[in-house]
Structure of Ammonium transporter:
Amino acid sequence: MGADQIAAVSGNSAWMLMSASLVLLMTPALALFYGGMSRQKSVLNMMMMSFGALGVVAVIYLLWGWSMSYGTQSIAGIFANPFEFFGLRDSIVDAEGNYIEGAAGYPNIIDIGFQLTFAVISTALISGALAERVKFSTWLIFSGAWVTLVYFPLAHMVWGGGLLSHNVSGFASWMFGSNGEEANIAPIDFAGGTVVHISAGTAALVLAVIVGKRKTFGKAIARPHNLPMVMLGAALLWFGWFGFNGGSAFAADGLAGLAWVNTTAATAAAMLGWLATEKFRDGHATSLGAASGVVAGLVAITPAAGALTPVTSLILGAIGGVLACLGVGLKYRFGFDDSLDVVGVHLVAGLWGTVGVGLLATDAGWFSGGGMDGFKLFIVQIVIALVAVVFAGVITAVIAFALKATIGWRVDDEVEQQGIDTHEHAESAYDTVGPEIR
């Protein structure tokens, strides 16, 4: 390996380690974001759901998650053999003690760490739909089951060489090819529109319906107890997302730079789109709206960060902000208690980002010079979005009903009314009484 190659590998390794660290930060940032949106009596439980998911998923990923997602022994193109690389066997060093090279040229163990953080944040996102009413133990069990049965298979199907992989150019041929010709239209999911946000948003919707509403839903206004905490969480999510999207270039190169700029462009535009929608609809542009708009923009650009220009990223983000702002109202129209707007932000914006890239992808989208192939890409993006919704929805429902019939989801009504923090964790977020005098 020449000096230039060594320097490139070292630079890419450093960037990917930094990106993995940034994505890991996103889960504590999510805890702040969700915690601030919760009521005072349930803020610790809400934050613990994110931290709990981090613990469960990180352990599982090292045992069988990497193998199920990126193993070479694919089972029907849906998931890989969980025992092939169980416990990261044969994934770190070779027989001579040298670090195994990964697909992107740097050591494979770095990519394992990077992908682990994606699995963690994807699972933690779901918790926002369940605020104030579920057992912590049930949530931990669900986290392990969901990441194993939903996330790992989707990661394999989209990124690991499975049914919906970027590398399967024949995917579109199945729909559009004729006379043996390949359409050569592969789906685009740069950093996780289907694998992360559509799957988590769909799971949130399914759980909100199966677990049921809070006792006060629709009867009392549940205001965020700490809006500065919400805004801090959103800011840290934005910071961490540069690792999420920029790291998905898998190198410290121009594509990573493009993803960085596109992420900023879409996020800023989405925040403005959300605030404009609020101002027009309600007469006020709120801090909660700004924070939520930031997250909606980050979600929308995730599948498209490497496939758009900065200008088309502005368009994608602005539309995503408007759609997500309108989408949070779906829970009131249809009567499901998505406590912290996971469906509106992650499912709606994730669907738009995944489908929107089919319209706006540089020189390939239907509206951006792709012609008939652009139309085909648009249809392919719709198909992969629907596949993710159906797959995540069905499997999540099976897991949720199984837990409901066995250990149960809900805390007692009295616990829900008095506050879940004290019952589940024997703690309160704020000491409003003062120290006991002995």
User: Anything to note?
Assistant: The chain has one domain: 3-163+182-425. The CA atoms of residues 18 and 243 lie 7 Å apart.
